[in-house]
Design a protein that fits this description.
Chain A: Residues 218-231 have a biased composition (Basic and acidic residues). Chain A: Residues 218-243, 275-297 are annotated as: Disordered. Chain A: Residues 20-274 form the DNA-directed RNA polymerase RpoA/D/Rpb3-type domain. Chain A: One of its GO terms (molecular function) is protein dimerization activity. Chain A: It comes from Laccaria amethystina LaAM-08-1. The complex is a heterodimer of chains A (297) and B (150). Chain A has helices spanning 30-42, 63-71, 80-83, 132-135, 217-220, 260-284, 289-296; strands at 10-16, 20-26, 46-57, 100-108, 115-118, 123-125, 163-167, 172-182, 193-200, 247-254. With 297 residues, chain A is an alpha+beta fold. Chain A has two domains: 10-43 and 194-282, Gyrase A, domain 2 (2-Layer Sandwich); 46-127 and 142-187, RNA Polymerase Alpha Subunit, Chain A, domain 2, CATH 2.170.120. In chain A, the strands form three sheets. Chain A has a four-stranded antiparallel beta sheet, covered by helices on one side. A four-stranded antiparallel beta sheet of chain A has the order 3-8-4-6, covered by helices on one side. In chain A, a hairpin with a 3-residue loop joins strand 1 (10-16) and strand 2. Chain A is globular, with a radius of gyration of 25 Å. Chain B has 150 residues and is α+β, with helices and mostly antiparallel strands. Chain B has a single domain, classed as 2-Layer Sandwich (Gyrase A, domain 2). Chain B has helices spanning 40-51, 83-111; strands at residues 19-23, 30-36, 56-62, 70-77. In chain B, strand 1 (19-23) and strand 2 form a beta hairpin. The longest helix of chain B has 29 residues, at 83-111. Chain B is flat. Chain B starts with 18 loop residues before the first strand and ends in a 39-residue tail after the last helix. Chains A and B meet through strand 1, helix 1, strand 5, helix 6 and helix 7 of A and strand 1, strand 2, helix 1 and helix 2 of B.
């Protein structure tokens, strides 16, 4: 049915940088490529600040405003699967060192110049002693990297911190934050990707879209760089309505919480568990008893 | 106040079955399968995979309501195989594609292994999002006075 059905999928990485990867996927169908994109954007767990306890806020910004901005700060989340639990699966009551990370921010301005409160002022602090560690045999803590849960870029020179608020003399901001694991289906702050570009059919041979134009379609809609990967259509080429897209151009840009490699690889493991869970269950899943009756009746 | 937990969008409740099959009473070899706590990501992929299989007469999916975290997939086969079995096959095929792609990605990444992976982002501009280079703004006029001295 599909020409490329039996072919093995192919992949070619065109560029790999610290925060981005550009690759071309071939011999898969559109739905598959799109699912891959969706999984990378919304199904990969990271950690992000989820609860903020404001002790002092004499800045010009209201508490909610600051809490929201803190939530958006990307935190290092490498090996999130093993290094932290979901709070909902944890044995603790409201949060412990296995399922959350504490960060504090405590700044005041005492100079005559405007001071910037940035993500560099956020400090990870250890969980206050809890006697829980002894009874809980979690190995999560040993799986964490040195900077797990730290704001991205804080420990690297040359990376500008993220501005949270500006304060002037006499103003103060003191907050305690609890970072938790989550996925972007719950809130976009948990997405490891800041942008995913996805393109196929740069010449619009398949006519999946129609370009609106003033006078000259080609001049007003220049083809992207991905056009170099494919042969431009001849002007007299008849429209092949059976054609299917089979080359997909991706560029995945991360916010730094995970490396691009980790994002893509997690993608597959995640993908496999999703498809796997429905498969294993429908194997044993007999028709629902209630509906079986209806069938007979 | 009575908002459901946000994670209920993608976490199965206790004892909840992820898959529920309803056989069609009027159409032969057809079934509607409800897959809970999944969305277009799985639905569309599964539908496309099913359509590429020769035994399939019909496959379609819908998410009846965007706020209800489940989708329905309707399958009709030509009778050589049950809808359940073909869905199972489709899942196996998809997993196969994914694992083969995973190995390929792994290999490609190992060729391209540059400047460390995993932690950290580099090559970020040193200039802050507001165009400056960070640091504090200028002193206020009338420095020396407290800001509350009017």
């Amino acid at each position: 049915m599909q020409s490329h059905d039996d072919l093995e999928p192919t992949v070619r990485i065109r560029e790999l940088k610290k925060d981005r990867v550009n690759f071309v996927l071939g011999n898969v169908d559109l739905a598959f490529a799109n699912s891959l994109r969706r999984v990378m954007m919304a199904d990969i767990p990271t950690v992000a600040i989820d609860m903020v306890e404001i002790e002092i806020n004499t800045t010009v910004l209201p508490d909610e405003f600051i809490a929201h901005r803190l939530g958006m700060v990307p935190l290092m989340s490498s090996n999130c699967d093993e290094a932290i639990r979901n709070t909902r699966d944890c044995t603790c009551l409201a949060g412990c060192s296995f399922c959350s990370i504490l960060l504090v921010l405590n700044v005041g301005c005492h100079d005559d110049t405007t001071m910037e409160v940035t993500s560099a002022h956020l400090d990870v602090i250890p969980y206050p002693e809890e006697g829980l560690e002894t009874q809980d045999s979690g190995e999560e803590l040993s799986k964490r990297g040195e900077y797990f849960g730290h704001p991205v870029g804080k420990n690297e020179p040359g990376v500008a911190p993220i501005l949270i608020c500006k304060i002037r003399k006499g103003q103060e901001l003191k907050v305690k934050c609890v970072a938790k694991k989550g996925i972007a289906k719950e809130h976009a702050k948990w997405s490891p990707c800041s942008a995913v570009s996805f393109e196929y059919d740069p010449y619009n041979k398949l006519r999946h879209t129609k370009y609106w134009f003033e006078t000259d379609e080609r001049g007003e809609w220049p083809t992207s760089d991905n056009g170099k990967e494919e042969e431009p259509p001849r002007d007299d080429e008849p429209f092949d309505f059976n054609a299917k897209p089979n080359k997909f151009y991706f560029e995945v840009e991360t916010d730094g919480s995970l490396g691009p490699q980790e994002v893509v690889m997690k993608d597959f493991s995640n993908f496999i568990t999703t498809a796997g869970s429905s498969r294993t269950t429908d194997k044993i899943g007999q028709p629902h008893p209630r509906t079986q009756n209806t069938t007979r009746g | 106040m009575n908002a459901p937990n946000r994670y209920e969008l993608y976490v199965l409740e206790d004892g909840e079955k992820p898959v529920e099959i309803t056989e069609d009473t009027k159409i032969p070899n057809a079934a509607t399968i409800k897959i809970v706590k999944q969305d277009h990501t799985l639905g569309n992929m599964l539908r496309a995979q099913l359509l590429s299989m020769p035994q399939i007469l019909f496959a379609g999916y819908k998410v009846p309501h965007p706020l209800h975290p489940y989708f329905l997939i309707k399958i009709q086969t030509d009778g050589t195989i049950t809808p359940q079995a073909i869905l199972h096959q489709a899942c196996t095929k998809l997993i196969g594609t994914m694992s083969s792609l995973e190995t390929k990605f792994n290999r490609e990444f190992s060729f391209k292994d540059v400047e460390g992976t995993g932690v950290g982002v580099g090559g970020m501009p040193t200039e802050d999002p507001y165009g400056g280079t960070g640091g504090a703004g200028g002193a206020w006029s009338g420095a020396g006075r407290d800001y509350l001295d009017f």
